[in-house]
Amino acid sequence: MKEISNLKKIQYVEQDILDYVVEFCKENKIEYWLDWGTLLGCIRHEGFIPWDDDIDIAMPREDYDKFIELFKKKGENKKFKLVDNTIENFKFPFIKIMSLKHFSTEKNKKVGIWIDIFPFDYYSKEEIIKLETLNLYKQKINKLRKNKNFCNKILLEIFRFKRKKLYKQLNKVKNLEEKYILSYPLNLEDKIWTFDKQKVFPLREKKFNGKEYKIPNDYDYYLKKHYGEYMKLPKIEDRQTHLDIEKCFFDEQDLERIIAKYEKKIKTAVILVAGMGTRLRNLTNDEIPKPFFKINNITLIERSIDRLLSIGIKKIILVTGHLDNFFEKLKKKYPQVLTVKNENYKNTSSMGSFYCAKELIGNDDILLLEGDLIYERQALIELLKSNEKDTILLTEDKKMSDDYYYEILEGKYIGKLTFDASTIEGEYGELTGIQKLSNELCKLMFKKYEEENNLKLGYEYCIEKIAEERKISCKRVDGILWSEIDDEYQLKRVLDTIYPELLKKGER
Question: Residue 3: is it exposed, middle or buried by C-beta count within 10 angstroms (0-12/13-18/19+)?
Fold first, then answer.
């Protein structure tokens, strides 16, 4: 396992706990949202605050009570435990879900790394004044504690009495019929935090460290209540952690599982090489498949494999067909290469070939490439840099002889697919034949292919059909060096312009 800081390990462990809790909430129809610094990190950093080492979520009291009851019955296991005030010396007005495999140290004792879950109580509009008065009492008590002279001691007792009385009154009326104001438990902190229910609900979703979680609807209002100018970073000296970072202990086997989940990197590529290359037969004489055409004594397919290996791809699936024996020989040179033959390659299009890779792909996210491409390594880097789980790589119009274009919607999603860019009124990009596909999208494509029952369906059109039902991201990067070599015109263009430019960049 690569070297990862203890802070990063803690964050991964906590997100693993969070994901378990969120899945439990979904299964049992329990409402939750990211809270405190976790919400702040979600909005300001799209993940953890870089120096933060805890996760906080919140629930309405009814959901919170339901969660405790059900989690104790069917949520606890060998990895996770719920800790609340039924545990000796636990005096917090909220609960923790603790790991039973990963530990921090508190007062020289090993304590499971945890996430906090805060309950929110409802109050009617009429109770706002009482909540504000309670806040005032708390502030006065804090001030009197700092200077305990004779008079202040008497005043301190008076305000403590008033506070206790008001506590009882408010606790009697919380969570009744009218639900207008949300508040943390009244004894949580020295300040009473209240939020307008209409600003919190309905909840929305936003990405935190690559995954979608629920957050308050008006998160700007919510965060300003907590932090004021929340987008402004605190001073370096104020950036504190909660745990003793260096005194943490991890179950290495379980930690490896967790890290693999959150540092999921694409390790699999699929290259479609089944085609017959009819438009280049004047040059190949049908004696070699098109991907074995050489430029500067290197075949297109070997150049592509070398590019993929250079960015960390560990498994390369070649979907073969025409003259498949050539590709079988590649497996001796490249142990990372697997092959599967499209037995019906003469009658099927690219989606039919891609479908043949279904079993070898399994549950992997992949890069999907066409086999007749020459391209610079940066094309692959651009896909790996994308934060989107699916990314279709587009470029400016290269004005080649066989062009496909995707319409670009909202600056980042694919729309209609066309041969004629002039039919697109807004932004568009030319397909490169290189894309990053999540396993989820792969499975949707396989399902769509089965439903369409169209042997001539191209994978580009399959993606277009799915994009009508769900958003699929694209990334237009102008200036990328690439070309397919489908005919002699494209080959001449590669030899005259693209390949010399690749050499200038130090690429073969």
Answer: exposed
DSSP 286-341: TSS-GGG-EETTEEHHHHHHHHHHHTT--EEEEEE-TTTHHHHHHHHH-TTEEEEE
b/e map 101-130, b = 16+ CB within 10 Å: bbbbeeeeeeebbbbbbbbbbbbeeebeee
Q: Tell me the residue ranges of DSSP E strands in 396-427.
A: 405-409, 413-418
* Amino acid letter, 201: F
Q: How far, in Å, CA of 237 to CA of 374, rounded? A: 51
Are the CB atoms for 192 and 186 separated by under 8 Å?
yes
Read off the pLDDT band of 37 (50, 70, 90).
very high
Query: Is the whole model's pTM more than 0.90, yes or no?
Result: no
Looking at residue 407, its amino acid is: E
Neighbours of 289 (CB within 10 A): 27
Inter-residue contact 191 to 169 (CB < 8 Å)? no
List residues bridging with 391 in a β-sheet.
Answer: 436
At 264, phi and psi to the nearest 5? -60, 115
pLDDT tens digits for range 246-261 = 888 899 888 888 887 7
User: Shortest CA distance to 192 belongs to which of 179, 181, 183?
Assistant: 183
Interacting residues of 311 by C-beta distance below 8 A, sequence separation 6+: 377, 380, 381, 384
Task: Please give the single-letter amino acid code of residue 145.
Answer: R
pLDDT at residue 2 is higher than 50? no
Number of other residues whose CB lies within 10 A of the CB of residue 381: 14
The reported pLDDT for the residue numbered 177 is: 65
CA dist., res. 500 & res. 490, Å (int):
14
The Cα–Cα gap between 442 and 357 comes to 10
The beta strand positions in 141-263, using DSSP E, are 181-183, 194-196, 204-208, 211-215
- pLDDT at residue number 1: 39
For residues 22-43, average pLDDT:
96
Which tens digit of pLDDT belongs to each residue from 207-240? 998 889 999 999 999 999 989 999 999 888 888 8
The answer to whether the beta carbons of residues 11 and 19 sit under 8 Å apart is: no
Q: Are 46 and 209 in contact (CB under 8 A)?
A: yes
pLDDT tens for 449-505 read: 999 999 999 999 999 999 999 999 999 999 999 999 998 989 999 999 999 999 999
pLDDT value at residue 170: 66
A 10 A CB-CB count for 338 gives 16
φ, ψ for residue 450, nearest 5 deg: -65, -40
